[in-house]
């Protein structure tokens, strides 16, 4: 097996070209209908027939009126079994020819007219040989023999030889398996590399030893790909470890700050300054928790997934949200609850994503939110609407970025950290779905989640 892909392509190209040239140039020479020399036995038979006819003509004196009859008699008498003879005069007249044979006779006479070197040629199931020289006084005739061919060439083979373009087509068909093997040998490692890249894009940072096989070029590419995956994995683990270390280091002074605040409140009582410090400390604690959740969600190599049902997955989340809405004095409408639709994913991550956008709607709505589910053949769709201030169109794609905040009412005063929707977007993408923001019929913001349905055949 040739290890180098460049050498393999070069070798197969020239091998295919050589095969085509060989077939085009050499195969026509294998045509059994080509003009060939007589075998010694055939030449002796023709010479013997020639002598007998000359002797017969000497015994049968010529008749000016019926001169051609004596020629017929001679060739009929001395024709070998299964064959018939014909004579061609110096004027080109053919004696003894059958009507349906005139085309092949004219063709053969035009190619073989030298009695010193008689030849033969096949015409389908017939074969013609000659010429032999017949002396009849002052006249000279050429003797030809027509007999059944010893082995007739197939009509399909004759068609190939008679039509060069068809021969070229057959040659291309013969070389097709070789070219298909070349294409397969090129496409197989490329497909492996593509599948490995898709896994990396979906967050599964694992090495693929099978990429380091095959042609040298793909082997080198596979080794580089695995090195890149290892480097990315080390980088992400380092980043995750850094975030964990930072959060741990931040929690220590944050805890001390909260303790100091509690001690100060006990000694000095309540004050606006203490309330502000405590609020900011709680906000910082929530932000650290959200940041760690986002980091774990984005950098988790593979979520533990299982077959799920939409109604079982989100019923408790919806009921909890309904209770919170009642406590906040807001109306929650669920015109189309989830059905028993099959999904596949991590239940904790999907519950958290839907809970996040519902709480987002509760936080920013004025008095009402709406939750509706729908399904079609391709997947399941969830709409969460609110009657809050909404989001400007130019900001709708940006709100899924970490720490992004709008300039309107959905700002830091609401108490959010700017990480909730980023976590939602990451989770939904890991489950091969998408989330988007648009105008709501209630006047605020609509957040839409789409997830593919699960089939047991997958």
UniProtKB/TrEMBL annotation:
Domain Histidine kinase: 245-455
TM segment ranges: 6-27, 165-184
Membrane topology: Multi-pass membrane protein
Subcellular location, record wording: Cell membrane
Enzyme class: transferase
Keywords: ATP-binding, Cell membrane, Hydrolase, Kinase, Membrane, Nucleotide-binding, Phosphoprotein, Transferase, Transmembrane, Transmembrane helix, Two-component regulatory system
KW Protein transport (keyword) present: no
PANTHER family referenced in this protein's UniProt entry, alphabetically: SENSOR HISTIDINE KINASE CPXA
Its EC number(s): 2.7.13.3
Protein name as annotated: histidine kinase
Record-annotated HAMP domain positions: 184-237
Reactions this protein catalyses: ATP + protein L-histidine = ADP + protein N-phospho-L-histidine
Alphabetized InterPro entries for the sequence: CpxA, CpxA-like_HATPase, CpxA_peri, CpxA_peri_sf, HAMP_dom, HATPase_C_sf, HATPase_dom, His_kinase_dom
GO molecular function ontology, one term from the record: kinase activity
Family annotation (PROSITE patterns): HAMP, HIS_KIN
């Amino acid at each position: 097996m040739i290890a180098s892909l460049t050498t393999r392509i070069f070798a197969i190209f020239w091998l295919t070209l050589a095969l085509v040239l060989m077939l085009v140039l050499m195969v026509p020479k294998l045509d059994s209908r080509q003009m060939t020399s007589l075998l010694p036995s055939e030449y002796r038979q023709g010479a013997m027939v020639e002598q007998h006819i000359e002797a017969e003509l000497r015994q049968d004196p010529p008749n000016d009126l019926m001169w051609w009859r004596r020629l017929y008699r001679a060739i009929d008498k001395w024709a070998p079994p299964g064959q018939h003879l014909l004579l061609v005069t110096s004027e080109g007249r053919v004696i003894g020819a059958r009507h349906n044979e005139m085309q092949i006779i004219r063709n053969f006479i035009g190619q073989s007219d030298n009695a010193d070197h008689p030849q033969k040629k096949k015409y389908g199931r017939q074969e013609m040989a000659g010429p032999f020289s017949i002396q009849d006084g002052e006249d000279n005739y050429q003797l030809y023999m027509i007999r059944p061919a010893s082995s007739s060439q197939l009509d399909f083979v004759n068609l190939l030889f008679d039509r060069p373009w068809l021969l070229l087509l057959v040659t291309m068909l013969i070389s097709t398996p070789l070219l298909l093997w070349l294409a397969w040998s090129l496409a197989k490692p490329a497909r492996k590399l593509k599948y490995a890249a898709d896994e990396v894009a979906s967050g599964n940072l694992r090495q693929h030893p099978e990429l380091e096989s095959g042609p040298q070029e793909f082997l080198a590419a596979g080794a580089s790909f695995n090195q890149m995956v290892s480097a990315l994995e080390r980088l992400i683990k380092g980043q995750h470890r850094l975030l964990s270390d930072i959060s741990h280091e931040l929690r220590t002074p944050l805890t001390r700050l909260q303790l100091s605040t509690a001690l100060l409140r006990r000694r000095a009582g309540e004050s606006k300054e203490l309330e502000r410090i405590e609020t900011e400390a709680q906000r910082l604690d929530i932000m650290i928790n959200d940041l760690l959740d986002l980091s774990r969600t984005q950098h988790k190599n593979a979520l533990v997934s299982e077959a799920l049902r939409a109604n079982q997955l989100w019923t408790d989340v919806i009921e909890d949200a309904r209770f919170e809405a009642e406590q906040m004095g807001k109306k929650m409408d669920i015109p189309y609850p989830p059905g028993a639709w099959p999904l596949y994913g991590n239940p904790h991550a999907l519950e958290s994503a839907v809970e996040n956008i519902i709480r987002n709607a509760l936080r920013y709505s004025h008095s009402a939110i709406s939750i509706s589910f729908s399904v079609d053949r391709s997947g399941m769709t969830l709409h969460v609407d609110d009657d809050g201030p909404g989001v400007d169109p130019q900001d709708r794609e940006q709100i899924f970025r970490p720490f992004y905040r709008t300039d309107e009412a959905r700002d830091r005063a609401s108490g959010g950290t700017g990480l909730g929707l980023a976590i939602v977007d990451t989770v939904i993408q890991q489950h091969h779905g998408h989330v988007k923001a648009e105008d709501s019929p209630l006047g605020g913001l609509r957040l839409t989640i789409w997830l593919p349905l699960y089939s047991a055949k997958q």
